[in-house]
Amino acid sequence: MKLTAKNPEETIYTPVPCTFASVWRQELNALLGLAEGVRATGYRFTTITPSSHALVNARPGNREARDIEGVLGWSRPFQKDVIPAHLFGLMEKAGVLQREGALWRSTVRFSTLQGDLFMHSAFPTTARDAVFFGPDTYKFVDAINAWLNGRAGQVGRAADVCAGAGPGGIAIAKACPGAEVLLLDLNPKAVDFAAVNAAVAGRPNACATMSNLFSNAAGSFDLVVSHPPYLIDASERAYRHGGGPLGAGLAITIIKAAIERLSPSGTLLLFTGVAIVEGRDPFLAAAAEALDRAGIDWAYREVDPDVFGEELARDPYQIADRIALVVVTATRAASA
Predict the structure, then answer these.
(1) What Pfam families does the database record attribute to this sequence (predicted)?
(2) Which residue has the higher pLDDT, 249 or 173?
(3) Helices (DSSP H) in 201-336: which residue ranges?
């Protein structure tokens, strides 16, 4: 259950336990108090690509925040009186403020998606443990909702692997309130943010926990979703580096791991980016081999032909024509 006091600073959250334990800690109440305080203002913000974000922030009039969206969406430095005093106090209590000369800057930002509020890392996401949220996230959730709207059976148990801020799993928890949904991530900061985001969305059936893929999650699943990192990143930041050939390593690993965890008629929905080389899709070939070997029915579609075009200028992508977004949907046969 969630208890929200009249004073947002006193917000207390007690999760309704899933059969799989949530990682909620009392220390997260300060972050939840901040999220609740932000939501109470009617805040709305759509997060754009990092390159577009940098261009907008570089405009002369945007060097300093003038409102709450500038502070918590655009991640601009700000003067204390730009936001309400109680909100500044909530940020202070949550430990998300840092000084920048005579100004302040928030270390978190908030995005809205389909009526829900999501806490994630401030721009720019340069830290190794940064938690990503961006245009891909909106497309990922759209793909999940499209699948849920057309599903034939019930979802009793689901997992969001590499959950990040948790939007995929939270979308499932909203659509399937009777399901147990695990938000799994190896990044402790992502797990904290996902737990807070599930709480502020009022989804106690979404349980966040530290897990390297399925390492801390037992049993099988009716639905597994994942939007893993898929680029080659020299700093190997958790939210960005996919490893393997042209960033596809983690996505292939997730496909192989999920195959072993799907219940009869269970489905994997994987949303990822792939490098196209001389008109060929090496990821598709590798995914098809793994799925065909396991006897899994699958479909594959390209949803955006050209993303992160700036990456093509970097050494790892000198052989690539483009980077595309794709969705893999793979379903295990029903029991005989």
Answers:
(1) MTS
(2) 173
(3) 249-259, 282-293
Domain boundaries, the chain: 2-121, 135-331
* Residue-wise pLDDT tens digits, 140-170: 999 999 999 988 778 999 999 999 999 999 9
- In the numeric block, which tokens belong to residue 169? 């799993």
The size of the chain, in residues, is 336
Q: ∠ at Cα 119 (113, 125), nearest 5°?
A: 105
- CB half-sphere exposure, 251, CA atoms < 13 A: 32
CATH number of 135-331: 3.40.50.150
Q: What are residue 126's phi and psi, to 5 degrees?
A: -95, -20
Report the pLDDT averaged over residues 221-243: 80
| Exposure string for 174-187, b = 16+ CB within 10 A, e = fewer | bbbeebbbbbbbbb
Find all residues with CB under 8 Å of 322, minimum gap 6, and list them.
Answer: 275, 276, 305, 306, 309, 312
> Is the pTM above the cut of 0.85?
yes
8 Å CB contact between 165 and 133: yes
